């Protein structure tokens, strides 16, 4: 009787409880409200993914070497072909192309795995229980959940038989809470005991979990300490290498090839020692 009283006083939409939605109405609402899934980030264009491969401290060193070698080649009259510059450019382009290709393949593989692992839920469709993907839940659906299952959308409990719900994922509450008919249910929460039926009210980005995901998606990720250290290391290297190359051009007592190799090796060694020393301070 306790479960019947709230239904008697509910609005007309609760009168659809015995039959739920029919397939045509479910499709119409799915087109209106969208799929019941967390909002995904917009896909990254291939050209942007390609350019992102150059955002690395080690790549900056190669870019600096490329620009310096081309500048030197032009300064000396552009005689012959700049073999070193072409080799460095080829390595950079090959690395960027392979990196972008691997990232795209990885995302496609993850999308296929998500599709295979899509959870199925029990809903009342056309007057009978049906097993459908959780992405196809729409407001107004009657969702049946039991022990060990997660609530796939926000809603209101219509029937709740000894239901205990773990809402720690949303509220941080350490203990499961008992839910009765006419109480609210939130997506992402776990039914640890009992079984019941709830009427879906919000799906996708409009649900509680969807709003949390939207807020988290707006947070800008800060660089990790290792990335910050590498960026600082690269700046030190660039400064010392530039000074070494500039000084090397005015050294005429040493052969140019040996002079350049010595300057670069010494500059990188000094930069590495200085960076490590600063890291331990």
What do these coordinates show?
The protein has 281 residues and is α+β, with helices and mostly antiparallel strands. Helix content is 49%, strand content 17%. Helix 8 packs antiparallel against helix 9. The longest helix is centred in the middle third of the chain and has 34 residues.
What's the shape?
Answer: elongated
Q: For the record, give the distance between the C-alpha atoms at the N and C termini, rounded to a whole number.
A: 72 Å
Question: What's the gyration radius in Å?
Answer: 31 Å
Mean pLDDT rating: 75
**How helical, in percent, are the residues?**
40-55%
Q: Which superfamily, in CATH terms, is the homologous superfamily of the domain at 4-40 and 119-217?
A: Calcium-transporting ATPase, cytoplasmic transduction domain A
Tally of alpha and pi helices: 9
How many beta-strand segments? 7
Sum up the structure in keywords.
single chain; 281 residues; alpha+beta; Calcium-transporting ATPase, cytoplasmic transduction domain A; seven-stranded antiparallel sheet; 9 helices; elongated
Brief summary of the model shown:
It is built from 9 helices and 7 strands. It has 281 residues and is of the alpha+beta class. The chain is elongated.
Topology:
Elements (H helix, E strand, L loop, with lengths): L3 H5 L14 H11 L12 H7 L4 H19 L7 H34 L3 E6 L2 E6 L8 E4 L8 E13 L1 H4 L5 E3 L4 E2 L4 E13 L5 H10 L7 H24 L7 H25 L1
Antiparallel strand pairs: 1-2, 1-3, 3-7, 4-5, 4-6, 4-7
């Amino acid at each position: 009787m306790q479960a019947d009283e709230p239904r008697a006083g509910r609005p007309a939409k609760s009168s659809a409880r015995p039959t739920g939605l029919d397939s045509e109405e479910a499709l119409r609402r799915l087109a209106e409200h969208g799929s019941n899934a967390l909002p995904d980030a917009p896909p990254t264009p291939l050209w942007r993914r390609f350019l992102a491969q150059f955002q690395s401290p080690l790549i900056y060193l190669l870019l600096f070497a490329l620009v310096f070698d081309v500048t030197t080649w032009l300064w000396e009259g552009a005689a012959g072909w700049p073999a070193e510059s072409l080799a460095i450019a080829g390595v950079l382009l090959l690395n960027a192309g392979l990196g972008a290709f691997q990232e795209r393949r990885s995302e496609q593989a993850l999308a296929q795995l998500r599709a295979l692992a899509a959870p199925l839920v029990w809903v009342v469709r056309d007057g009978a229980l049906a097993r459908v993907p959780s992405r196809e839940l729409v407001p107004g659906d009657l969702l049946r959940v039991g022990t060990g299952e997660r609530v796939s959308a926000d809603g209101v409990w219509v029937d709740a038989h000894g239901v205990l719900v773990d809402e720690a994922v949303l509220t941080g509450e350490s203990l499961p809470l008992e839910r009765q008919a006419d109480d609210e249910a939130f997506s992402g929460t776990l039914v640890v005991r009992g079984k019941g039926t709830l009427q879906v009210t919000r799906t996708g980005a409009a649900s509680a979990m969807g709003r949390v995901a939207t807020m988290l998606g707006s947070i800008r990720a800060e660089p990790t300490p290792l990335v910050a250290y590498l960026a600082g290391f690269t700046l030190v290297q660039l400064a010392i290498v530039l000074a070494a190359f500039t000084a090397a051009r005015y050294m005429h007592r040493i052969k140019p090839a040996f002079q350049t190799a010595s300057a670069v090796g010494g500059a990188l060694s000094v930069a590495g020692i200085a960076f490590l020393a600063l890291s331990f301070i």
